[in-house]
Each structure stands twice: as C-alpha cells, then as structure tokens.
Write a structure and sequence with these properties.
The chain is of the alpha/beta class and 384 residues long. The protein is built from eleven helices and 13 strands. It has two domains: 74 residues, DNA polymerase, domain 1, CATH 1.10.150; 272 residues, TIM Barrel (Alpha-Beta Barrel). Helix content is 32%, strand content 17%. A nine-stranded mixed β-sheet has the order 3-4-5-6-9-10-11-12-13. Helix 1 crosses helix 2, helix 6 packs parallel to helix 8 and helix 9 runs parallel beside helix 10. The chain is elongated, with a radius of gyration of 22 Å. The protein binds S-adenosyl-L-homocysteine and iron/sulfur cluster (SF4). The site of S-adenosyl-L-homocysteine has 18 residues, from strand 10 and strand 12.
C-alpha cells in the first residue's frame, strides 16, 4: 500500500487556498494532481468527488465530505476555499422577490435578485459586472461610478449564496425553487463574455447545480460582435434589449446603437447559433411614456421582427430617484400589447416584481456611491 504523500500539499500559512468557484473541473483536477502528486486518473476522481460535494450538496465544510478519507479532506481543505461571498444586505418584497447586496471583494458591491414563479419555478437575476460602462438613459445601473468585470467565481458565487438562502440543496430536485438564471442584473454580460461563459459551464454542469443552458438567458444591449460567440461558447438563450424601432431613438436610449445599429443587431439575431421556433430570442422593450410607446411603434416592432423567431417582452419602466422618464400608462401598455398580441406574440407584458424594494429591472445600483461599503458592512455586522 502506498501512503498518501501530503507533504507537498503545504497546509501551512504560506499556502494560499484558491476559491473553488470559478474553476473548471479539469482545472480542479490539475491543482489536485500537482499539489498531491496524484496521477491524472486519481486527480480526476478526486475532483469529481469535490465537485459533487460543492455543487450538488452545497457543503461549506470539507469535513462533511464523508466519502473522502480524513487525510485527503484535510489536504483538499488546504488547497481550496468554499467560502461564500458576504451578503451585506437582503431584502424581501411583499411579492416574495428577494434582493441581495453582495460584497464580492472589499469595496466591490453588486446585487442579484431571486424572483419566484418565473420560468419553470423561479429565476435568479445575476450581475456580470460591478456597475456598467454603458449609459442607457433609462437604467439606474448605468449611473454607477465604479465599474469592473466580475470573475467567473464571483458570478457562480451569487448562485451559491442564493441557493444557501433558499436552502436549495441538494441541487436538482423536482421541488426546486431556483430553475432559471437570467443575466439581467448589473452589467453588460457580453463585455465580460469569457467569465460569463465559464460561469455558465459551471452552473449548467449536470453533476452540480445543473441548470440547463435552455434555462439560462443572457441579455445584451447589443454588443453585436460577441453575439455569435455567446451562442458558440455558452449555448444559452438570448435576450436583446431593443427598446426602440428606429436608430434615431435607439441611439439616444441605448447609446451602443451608434456603434452597432438595429439592422446589424437583427442580422446577428437571425444567425444566432441554435435559434429556432422552439428556441426563440426574447426582445425586451421598456415602456417609456410618450417616448417609444405609440401604436405606430408597436406596428413597427412587429414588422422589424417578422422573420426572426422572437418573443416580445414589454417591460413597464421601473422608476428610480431622478430618472428622466415616466412609465407609460397602463392603458397605453395594454393598447401596445394588443397590437403585439394580434401579431401572434403571446403574453408580452412582463409584470414588474419587487418594485417595493427597488429590485426590478434596471433599478439595481449598489449604494456604494452614497454610503461607503465599509460603513454599510459595519452597520449590518452590528445588527443596526
Ligand atoms: N446590460 C444588459 C443586461 C442587464 S439590463 C442589457 O442591457 O440587456 C436587463 C434589462 O433591464 C434590459 O432589458 C434593460 O434594458 C432593462 N432595464 C434597464 N433599466 C430599466 C428600467 N429602469 N425599467 C425597466 N427595464 C429596465
Ligand atoms: Fe448597462 Fe444594460 Fe443598464 Fe444599459 S440597460 S446601462 S447595458 S445594465
């Protein structure tokens, strides 16, 4: 019998544990193989065990990994961290929507939102960036000063933190409450596609969190050159933030349109890998009073999308302090929806959720600008 060589695992203070979330399974195997001098097959087996404990059972403690020997557990604990990000604040809406303020790294705050009864069971709206570099005029996130890409680990960690809060372990049961993921939180996911695709690889893995790519939607304001790559590398559903039917207005509302105008955007949609009548593209259209909500625009929208397998989502504008728009009246939204409906698009209005806790689309903006992160953490930590 060969004794396990753990001398090279360096469980001492100088060894730096790597956060597990964000690592592909093959990378975990590489780290294990190298650090513990295991052959590739054994390293892969250990990586699979670890993966299942982390993502299927959601354990936070290596001691819970009962089919792994004591020494090996200690060695793995010296290599990887299963630590969750700090949930600085959590608010629950009267409609059951939950909004989380998460400190992904010191001073870097993002929000994600769990919305029950959306998709198959419930959807988690995740962030892909801290803030957003684009400045869509109706969106609160675009006004946030601090911006950086989230790592794949920071994206996956949002899912882990929310699954903890929902007690959604083990993953994948029939009674799951979290069935869908939408990249509609803070940030432009196609400006951070490598990390987004890597996170999706982890979230969709059938031995772990196991949310299939068909139940993951990535929403973009229209980063045309990255749309095909999203389909090829992540294979998710696609949503496009259209919001206007002509370039003049879209240039104003969604400034990235000046770079990639509507016809180029729709061409990329027509050729999106996997698009079909059962895998439709969602077009989001925010209803802004007197700006883009006329009957003529409803008809133009239908015309624009006629040869694309499409779903239309009319989003009542969600106001935020100081916003330069108002939401269209309910009668206007219904009249607009009736035209869209008549053209064959079913239930096009998206019911706003979590409005009372400013958790609805486009309202996410961490308070970091107004209240310094450290002060906020302190307040929560001391129970104030
Ligand atoms: N950056 C990506 C994904 C995040 S925004 C994108 O723009 O698609 C998610 C959705 O919320 C987008 O359709 C966005 O246009 C919409 N949105 C932004 N601000 C909004 C607001 N105040 N009210 C309603 N929808 C809004
Ligand atoms: Fe960024 Fe999307 Fe908001 Fe535009 S709508 S500012 S792309 S988060």
């Amino acid at each position: 019998m060969t004794a396990l060589d753990l001398t090279s695992a360096k469980p001492d203070a100088e060894a730096r544990m790597r956060p597990l979330f964000g690592l592909a399974r093959a990378e975990i195997a590489d780290v294990i193989g190298e650090a513990l001098s295991l052959d590739a097959k054994k390293a892969r087996m250990r990586a699979s065990q670890l993966w299942r404990w982390a993502y299927h059972y959601g354990v936070t403690d290596f001691e819970a990994m009962t089919d792994i020997g004591k020494e090996m557990r200690a060695a793995l604990a010296g290599l990887f961290s299963l630590e969750r990000p700090k949930v600085v604040d959590r608010q629950v809406s009267i409609d059951g929507t939950r909004k989380y303020l998460i400190e992904v790294a010191p001073g870097a705050l993002i929000e994600c939102v769990y919305i029950p009864d959306v998709g198959k069971a419930g959807a988690l709206c995740v962030s892909s960036q801290v803030g957003c570099t684009l400045n869509c005029t109706f969106c609160h996130t675009g006004t946030q000063a601090l911006v950086r890409n989230l790592t794949a680990g920071e994206i996956v960690a949002q899912v882990m933190a929310v699954k903890d809060d929902l007690a959604e372990w083990p993953s994948g049961g029939d009674d799951r409450r979290l069935s869908n993921i939408v990249f509609m939180g803070m940030g432009e996911p196609l400006y951070n596609l490598d990390n987004v695709a890597r996170a999706i690889e982890i979230i969709a893995d059938g031995d772990g969190i196991s949310i299939s790519r068909r139940r993951i939607t990535v929403s973009t304001s229209g980063v045309v050159p990255e749309i095909a790559r999203l389909g090829e590398s992540a294979g998710t559903m696609l949503a496009i933030s259209l919001h206007a039917t002509n370039d003049k207005l879209r240039d104003e509302l969604v400034p990235i349109n000046r770079k990639y105008p509507i016809n180029e955007l729709l061409d990329a949609c027509r050729t999106y890998p996997g698009v079909s009548n059962v895998r439709k593209i969602t077009f989001e259209y925010v209803m802004l009073k007197g700006v883009n909500d006329s009957d003529a625009e409803a008809r133009a929208l239908v015309r624009l999308l006629k040869d694309i397998p499409a779903k239309i989502n009319l989003i009542p504008f969600n106001p935020w302090p100081g916003a330069p728009y108002e939401c269209s009246s309910w009668e206007r939204i219904e009249a607009f929806a009736a035209i869209v409906n008549k053209a064959g698009y079913a239930s096009p209005i998206r019911t706003p959720r979590g409005r009372d806790i400013l958790a609805a689309c486009g309202q996410l903006k961490s308070e970091s600008v107004k209240i310094r992160a450290s002060e906020r953490v302190k307040a929560v930590g001391s129970g104030q």
